[in-house]
Amino acid sequence: MAACVLLAACGRQETPAQQQEQAVVVRTAPVRAAEPAPLVLSGTVRARYESPLAFQVGGRIVARLVDAGATVRAGQTLARLDPKDVLAQLEAAQAAERAAQAQWRLAQNELARTERLAAQRFVGEQALDRARTQLEAARSQLEAAQAQERQARHAMEYTELRAPADGVLMEWSAEPGQVVAAGQPVAMLAQKGEREVEVALPERFGRQPPPRGEAVLPDGSAVPLELREVSGAADPVSRTFRARYRLLTAEPPPLGSVVQVRLPQPPVEGWEVPVGAMDERGAGPRVWRVKQGRLEAVPVEVLAVENATARVRGPLEAGDHVVAFGTHVLREGMRVEERAP
């Protein structure tokens, strides 16, 4: 029995070739220069020119002729005020003008009579000067009355709110029956023409906003953007800067659409490696670089970690291959065989 056990043990001895180190198969990934991910924000499609509309006189709204969202033409009537008060003012101005005309004609006749009497030396120069002065005063009163009549006539026209340009009526902020003051905004008109995307930039971009970017439309297509303006101060509540980017396309999305805005970020330092390549077993963070079929540990400093990648600083070069995962079982000088991840 002892002889049989000895023979079996002798049969299990390894050969010299088997005693050599076997290459371990590892998954590797190339080291790449770190590139910042684009800043992704939500933006709203707006018109280049958005005009608040208001009546130029105060009064009670009696009719709203166009609904929000309607396309309107320049000069189209949008709403009306009750014209009774303005009409009364117009009638009073017209009556005042007629009275001033009568006074002016009377002053003309009076001057003519005085001139005839002065020619016959029945009145002196003082009476003639008085008649001329009365005529000048009557003329001034007539001009003032005519100006008031024109003003009242214009006020009558102002009881109708008209579109100043072609565009889309975005919203109403007043209802029929409501009394509004002169100059109080009652509607918003998005004028026809350029379309832009409005975004709220983080505070760090307020001084130097990205000059260009792209908007991803609801259908998935991308449209280039170009910065037009950025607010001079941050919003006191959100601490963001309002920016407007031009949509460089002939077929912009509808007004009010929400689009995804992608803006480039400033360059960053370091190298990009898979998160699984990081090994922090006691000696600090490091990655395992494959060089001539052997592993070598490369100490690194972790700068940032994202979902699938880490940004590190260390003695690496673009194109180096590092083990992508399973680093907890690796050791210095280990022989490996690479496989793509």
From TrEMBL:
Q: What are the alphabetically sorted keywords of the record?
A: Coiled coil
Q: What is this protein called?
A: RND family efflux transporter, MFP subunit
Coiled coil stretches, renumbered:
125-155
The entry sums up its family as follows:
Belongs to the membrane fusion protein (MFP) (TC 8.A.1) family.
Domain named Multidrug resistance protein MdtA-like barrel-sandwich hybrid: which ranges? 56-189
Provide the Gene Ontology terms for cellular component.
efflux pump complex
Which molecular-function annotation in GO is an example for this chain? efflux transmembrane transporter activity
> Which superkingdom, per the lineage?
Bacteria
InterPro entries found in the cross-reference section: MdtA-like_BSH, RND_pump_MFP
